[in-house]
Design brief:
Layout (H helix, E strand, L loop, with lengths): L3 H8 L11 E8 L2 E8 L5 E5 L10 H10 L3 E5 L17 H15 L9 E6 L1 H11 L6 E7 L3 H17 L3 E2 L2 H10 L6 H7 L4 E5 L2 E8 L7 H8 L2 H7 L3 E6 L7 H8 L4 E4 L7 H4 L1 H14 L1 H7 L1
Parallel strand pairs: 3-4, 3-5, 5-6, 6-10, 10-11
Antiparallel strand pairs: 1-2, 2-4, 7-9, 8-9
């Protein structure tokens, strides 16, 4: 007979990346800098997905699972520098300049043998949204038809930096097991979708001692050490977003997150705003179906353009 404890443990067990992606590639972008990249699909428009601080490419797993059932498309979701299974010579440099260069080089290595780059939908969450905006404005990536950012706005991001230390210190610094970390992730509301937590959370932690599981797990990246880069990620972000020429979508968990510049821009129709309910900061994890539907509608709306570029 299965005990209640075994049932609970199974419900919070980790899921494998193979359930969501076709490949897990190791891409050496520069000597000693090897990026881990999750890939799915080989045809159709490309969704290039940039995760937020502390997450990994697996934060997009549920979204990738759903969008590829609704559309013929390609998914590229890298682990950024200092995150997930990516290994680099300098994991401490998380400046915008270094990271958008990483994002560019990962793309170039993956598509070096393609004579015709696919049309791209560039999506970033939180810190990844800031990086996506900066990469797009600098025109580091080809054929960007649409830029989408999830729950990152300059005004609210800059004001929340003051509370970031308190938030980070309030999190558990260690977990006894992967299951415990997933349980915390869901019960704390960090992710409200259990399936997303089961694939995303394990990639955010590492064994304290890689040879001894009993010593528990700690965070893969110490986010407090990234503080020198926080202002650089978000400063002047609203204007840079408005300056980007592709079609733009801002996906938020709360309409109150809009700052003055974006409120005016939204009223002027300079970008599409989507406000989702019953979600937290990780909007794409909490409601992957609704987020996927936003992009299905986008691709259908721009179908003629995409077809000409494919």
């Amino acid at each position: 007979m299965v005990s209640p404890q075994d049932i609970e443990k199974a419900s919070y067990s980790a899921l494998e990346w193979t359930e969501f992606f076709d490949e897990k590639k190791s891409i050496e972008i520069e000597e000693g800098d090897i990026f881990n990249v999750y890939v799915k699909g080989t045809t159709g428009p490309l969704f290039y997905l940039i995760h937020g601080g502390g997450y990994s490419g697996l934060t997009w797993a549920c979204f990738a699972e759903i969008i590829t059932k609704k559309l013929e498309c390609q998914i590229v979701a890298p682990d950024l520098r200092g995150h997930g299974d990516t290994l680099t010579k300098d994991e401490s440099d998380l400046s915008s300049e270094r990271q958008i260069k990483d994002i560019q080089l990962v793309y170039q290595k993956l598509f070096a043998d393609r004579s015709k780059p696919p049309p791209m939908i560039l999506i970033g969450h939180s810190m990844g949204g800031a990086l996506a905006i900066r990469a797009c404005e600098a025109k580091l990536l080809p054929n960007v038809v649409a830029l989408a950012v999830i729950d990152v706005v300059e005004g609210s991001a800059m004001s929340s930096l003051k509370m970031m230390h308190h938030f980070l210190k309030s999190r558990p610094q260690q977990f006894r097991s992967v299951e415990e970390s997933i349980r915390w992730c869901v019960k704390s509301g960090t992710t409200r979708n259990l399936r997303a937590a089961r694939i995303s959370m394990p990639a955010q932690i590492r064994r304290v001692d890689k040879n001894d599981e009993k010593k528990g797990y700690q965070w893969r990246i110490t986010l407090t050490r990234t503080e020198p880069f926080w202002i650089g990620w978000f400063n002047d972000l609203s204007q840079k977003f408005l300056n980007c020429t592709p079609a733009k979508i801002l996906i938020l968990a709360n309409v109150d997150r809009l700052d003055k510049d974006l409120t005016i821009g939204s009223m002027q129709g300079k970008f599409q705003t989507e406000i989702l309910d019953k979600v937290g900061h990780a909007v794409h994890e909490d409601s992957p179906e609704k987020v996927a539907d936003i992009f299905v509608a986008l691709v259908n709306r721009y179908k003629v353009i995409f077809n000409k570029m494919l």
